Amino acid sequence: MDYTEQTKQKGHNLVKGVLITISVLFVGIMLILPMVSVVTNALSKGFSFYVHSLTTEYVVSALVITLLATLVAVVVNTFFGIMASWALTRFSFKGKHVLATLIDIPFSISPVIAGLSYIMTFGRMGWAAPVINWINATFHTDLQIVFALPGVLLATIFVTFPFISREIIPVLNSEGCDEEEAAALMGAGGFTIFRKITFPKMKWALIYGMILCAARALGEFGAVSALSKTRGKTFTLPLEIDALYLSGDSDSIVSAFSVSSILVILAIVVLVLRNIFEYREKKSSNESR
Amino acid sequence: MYVELKDINKKYGDFYASKDVNLSIEKGKLVALLGPSGSGKTTILRMIAGLENPTSGSIFIDGKRVDGLAPSERGIGFMFQSYALFRYMTVFDNIAFGLRVKKVPEDQIRSRVKELLKLTNLEGIENRYPNQISGGQRQRVAFARAIAPNPSLLLLDEPFAAVDAKVRQDLRSWLRDMIYRLGITSIFVTHDQDEAVEVADQIVVVNRGRVEQTGTPSDIYGGPQTAFVAEFVGQSLPINDFYKLRGYEEQKNLYKGAIVRPEFVEVFRADNPTFKELVPVADRATVEKISFRGDHLELLVDVKGIKLTVSRALERRPVSVGDQMLAVVYRLYAFDHEDIVLLNNANLRDYEAIA
Amino acid sequence: MRSIASRNGKIKVKRSDRVIPGFGLSLGITIVMLSVLILIPLASVLLYSFQLSPDKFVTLITNRAVLFAFGTSISCAFIAALINCIFGTVLAWVLVRYDFPGKRILDGVVELPFCLPTAVAGITLSKLYSDTGWMGRIFSRIGVKISYTHIGLTIALIFIGIPFVVRAIQPVLENLDPQLEEAAYALGANPRITFFKIILSELRPALLTGFALAFARGIGEYGSVIYISGNSAKDHTQVISYVIMQKLNYMDYASATAIALVLLIISFSILFLINVIQIRQSKRTNYL
User: Fold this and answer.
1) Vertex C219 angle, CA C213 and C222, to 5°
2) Gap from C26 CA to chain B (nearest CA, Å)
3) Is residue C254 predicted with pLDDT exceeding 80?
4) Longest pairwise C-alpha distance within chain B
5) Which of A67, B274, C29, C58 is most buried per CB count within 10 Å?
6) Which residues in chain A are contacts of C240 at CB distance < 8 A?
7) What average pLDDT does the segment C80-98 reach?
């Protein structure tokens, strides 16, 4: 290595060092420090207080609602994701790009608008309110959507709607549909083609999408907040955290951090799973090439 | 006729992928659809398979009208260009797929797949996955999978495109032998004329969605009926001002242009014993480039501003760039819009020297 | 042959190029679910806001508090997205080009804002940057207040937006043809010129997409910003989604929908922009 090469190498190493330091500092201060802060705040009144604040009636109820909403959102959106990706990647038709864009809408609009739109549809002002009243009158039911459990579920589905289709569609697109055509040509039916050929291709992307969907569903706040007003009944964990934090006294604030710490742990679990599945997905698509 | 296409048109918007295609194929023949990329040859194949439907016209297989029938009801085997092997199934399961879908009893499937594995020389790898076998093996698996349900017609889309040049040569003769042994009517698509000439009994030349010419390889090569075929088949060079060449002056206003193949031209060195006699009938040519082509030389010569490619046997006396030589064009294909004729050099009958 | 043709002429010919089954079913379900869950509810917002007279609409929208909230949301989201473009490029570069211990962890942590509930992010950031928090204490010593100001708001939006930018750039950087850089070096360009002239121009569409995504998310963000922003109309620290929520709580549906409509238009414009960028990008790479 001659002199100029050496100085170049030195300069290169310097740049590398500086850039890595910037990155680590940025991630450390902006992303990791807040997590650490959640945990230390949560434990600031001792471990028994921590356990106590996690076992109140409100928190348990919120946990149940949160898990239920997450489950429903994952199931509904998985079904939707499979249908949408099948339609959008196996066929070409007019308006395909428009449809794909419409599916992505929930990504780019404020969750508060999601909540608002359900209120304007099913709420007292909404055009669907007479329909609901009619159903209730005819079938002697007490169906309520807004400010009740169905509203919470709908809001959660709304904000996580594209998560799964969005993960599957690129995978299926890049794999092409020769294999499906070959199978159809040999007389295989739709379900057989899906089960034997398409599903194995998108398996990892699907799981990955389900994890993302679950993560977002667990933490949805804005949309649910517009549609859920009863603490202990229709509150999810983020709403419970909000209620605790805003009540202002120092015990409640610590409790808010305690509840948050569960969600932080879940977020970290999701991150780890996500990395594992992303790795698997990459590996499987590399292998098939 | 075993396979028949009648007045087939295929439109994508305003674009005709196929236009007035009529085609008849005899039973047991191995037919090549030959054309440049984008010529619509694959569209024809896919329409026969039922992967695409014609905008108008009808398709018959074995006397039965099949357009409108699902691909699986047409009794065809299809080999995809990419092979489309099911990557999450073993070689065995790939070959068995078509039979399983048809609900053939499992013991029959087993014996049929065994038989095919033996036929295609794939024994021992039946439990591997497509990504664990070589390109040549993949092609054989795709072939075995396509013929497993005993189709009456085998369709192959660029069957050799996905293997590298070295394996291709072996696979060509393998595939041809295999198809003859099975006696199955087959149609394959290719853009490679050597492949078509070597493998097929019959060639269908396709250009811009139309069938240009149908015939045996020697018909196509020796008697092109359109300018496109003359230019596409063989190593052909289109020239416009062919009438400048000696022996063709009288044809000036009769044809629009001409196509010359290297084997139609010969060049003579100045020290050739017949040189003097040649002078009145031949054109002066300057050697501009010499390329070694393995078993012969290829010269690029300039004749009155026309560039011609000439092949020259290695054992003839050497030439070098810049040499002044004499060139005689024995014949050429002259064309005018639709018509194409083989013109012989007018001086040929008058001069013994070059006869 | 003729007799066969006429005999079979009655076959019902399905003129469809779809060999793979399930088109009608899957498309039908997709459209129904999309309509019921997303499009019809959103249309209700539009429907309601169209019932407002233009005068009323303008009055509601040009309310001082509303205008300031729009200004706050847009300007803070814009600044946060810009800052994210800088740090996002550095992060993506470091993650793609260098090897160092802990790289995979760093790569994973970048996604944290996607996985962490916004409310959790909101309260922890608010606490961290308040006068008694770890970061807030440091800054208050030099007289800078962060929580309950525009600075805090911007920090929360940086937190939310960083993964959008990193994840938009990373794949492009990974697929960048190394020959491009080598060619630039071979032609005598130094690393700095190579980066700014060659690599950055290759990254531009991805950078724009990342910027637009982070910006769009930032404008409508609710959970992570409402604790750290002061939510004071007087100090102009209300964000627009907070205002919508406030109107909803007061059952002022007219204002809520009017503001939501404007916000929707902004979001859709950004969505449209992203699509244009991506279509252009794919065209460009296809032609290469």
Assistant:
1) 110
2) 19
3) yes
4) 81
5) C29
6) 110
7) 94
Helix axes A96-103, A163-175, angle to 10 degrees: 140
Tell me whether residue B61 is in a domain: yes
| Whether B19 and B101 share a structural domain | yes
Pair B170, B293 in one domain = no
How many whole angstroms separate alpha carbon C155 and alpha carbon C269?
Answer: 25
Question: What pLDDT is recorded for position A158?
Answer: 96
- B53 and B118 part of one domain: yes
Residue B294 DSSP one-character state = S
* Chain-chain contact of C19 with B63 (C-beta, under 8 angstroms): no
The predicted complex's ipTM stands at 0.88
Q: pLDDT tens-digit profile of C149-163?
A: 999 999 999 999 999
- Of A219, A228, A207, A222, which is closest to residue A274 (Cα–Cα)? A207
Mean pLDDT over A34-58 rounds to: 93
CA distance A110 to chain C (A): 4
Is B230 domain-assigned? no
Q: Which chain C residues are closer than 8 Å to A194 by Cβ? A: 22
Please count the structural domains in chain B: 2
Same domain, B151 and B172: yes
Distance from CA of C25 to the nearest CA of B (A): 18
Domain edge (last residue) among B183, B200, B225: B225
Label residue C14 by pLDDT band (50, 70, 90): very low
Contacts with B72 from chain A: Cβ below 8 Å: 184-188
Whether A120 sits inside 8 A of C91 (CB atoms) is no
Query: Could you tell me how many CB contacts below 8 A there are between chain A and chain B?
Result: 58
Map out the domains of chain C with their CATH numbers. Answer: 54-282 (1.10.3720.10)
Mean pLDDT of chain C: 86
Task: Tell if the CB–CB gap between B72 and A197 is shorter than 8 Å.
Answer: no
Domain range spanning residue B84? 3-225
Note the pLDDT tens digit of each residue in A139-187. 988 888 889 999 999 999 999 999 999 899 988 988 888 899 999 988 8
Q: Which of C193, C175, C153, C200 is nearest to C288 (CA)?
A: C175
Neighboring chain B residues of A192 at a CB cutoff of 8 Å: 101
Nearest to B53 among C4, C11, C16 (CB): C16
Closest CA in chain B for residue A184: B72
For residue B231, tell me if it sits in a domain. Answer: no
Task: Mark whether B218 and B281 lie in a shared domain.
Answer: no
pLDDT, average across residues B274-279: 71
- Chain A residue with minimum CA distance to C96: A20
B350, pLDDT greater than 90: no
Residues of chain A in Cβ contact (below 8 Å) with chain B: 176, 178-179, 181-189, 192, 196-197, 200-201, 287-289
Tell me which residue in A91, A108, A109 faces C23 most closely, judged by beta carbons.
Answer: A91
Residues B218 and B247 in one domain: no
CA-to-CA distance for B39 and B212, rounded, in angstroms? 11
**Which residues does chain B have within 8 Å of residue A187's beta carbon, measured at their own beta carbons?**
70, 72-73, 98, 101-102
Closest Cβ–Cβ partner in B4, B53, B70 for C17:
B53
Backbone angles phi, psi at B205, to 5 degrees: -90, 125
Q: Which residues of C172-209 are buried (b: 16+ CB within 10 A; e: fewer)?
A: bbeebeeeebeebeeeebeeeebbeebbeebbebbbbb
Q: Domain boundary at B194, B225, B256, which?
A: B225
Instruction: List beta partners, residue B309.
Output: B300
- pLDDT, mean over chain A: 89
* B72/A201 CB distance under 8 A: no
Q: Are B257 and B187 part of one and the same domain?
A: no
| C13 pLDDT more than 70 | no
B247 and B216, same structural domain?
no
The alpha-carbon gap from C126 to the nearest alpha carbon of chain A, in Å, equals 9
**CATH code where residue B91 lies:** 3.40.50.300
B130 inside domain:
yes
- pTM (2 d.p.): 0.82
CATH number of the domain that residue B328 is part of: 2.40.50.140
Cβ <8 Å between A185 and B97: no
Bridge partner residues of B267 (DSSP): B327
Distance CA B320, CA B298 (A): 12
Subunits adjacent to chain B (3 or more Cβ pairs under 8 Å): A, C
Q: Calculate mean pLDDT across residues B291-316.
A: 86
Give contacts of C19 with chain B, Cβ < 8 Å.
Answer: 50-51, 70-71
